[in-house]
Amino acid sequence: MKAFQDLISTDYGIMSLIGILMMVGGLAYAYVVLRRKMAETSDEPGK
């Protein structure tokens, strides 16, 4: 419980939380973009 309190109440904890959220957001964005790219169909062979 002390670790969670440090995470949400200290300056370094809040910065860590922001970093974690940014990484998760970046992964979610990359997942969506890559899924769309993989789902695209190409009419030209070899592309």
TrEMBL record:
It comes from the Bacteria. InterPro entries: DUF3149. The chain crosses the membrane at residues 12-34. Keywords: Membrane, Transmembrane, Transmembrane helix. This is DUF3149 domain-containing protein.
